[in-house]
Specification:
Blueprint (H helix, E strand, L loop, with lengths): L4 H18 L4 H15 L6 H19 L3 H7 L1 H14 L1
Helix pairs in contact: 1-2, 1-5, 2-3, 3-5
Protein name: YtzH-like protein
């Protein structure tokens, strides 16, 4: 059964929160973020303000999936991670 767009948003926020809280993550999580953001960006039910945030999250996840030091990538995006989650909550 496919996830609703709201379930996808919740999963996206959970992964971002985990990265922000734990200051670490996995390549698989970054790949999951990529898939979630791509799916949500083409969904007409998603608020346009959220879609602009999703573009930043997509770039973050792409870079994270390709970096040699994922923990450092997550650490350097700590402020962005919490801001993205707060903004998604505000618009969804």
């Amino acid at each position: 059964m496919p996830l609703s767009h709201q379930d996808q948003v919740t999963l996206l926020k959970d992964i971002l929160n985990n990265h922000q809280t734990d200051c670490c993550g996995s390549t698989a999580e970054c790949e999951q973020l990529e898939r979630l953001t791509k799916s949500l960006m083409v969904n007409a039910q998603v608020n346009q303000n959220v879609k602009s945030i999703l573009q930043d999250v997509y770039y973050y996840s792409q870079t994270g999936a390709q970096t040699a030091d994922l923990d450092q990538h997550i650490l350097s995006n700590q402020e962005n991670l919490s801001q993205w989650v707060n903004n998604i909550d505000q618009f969804s």
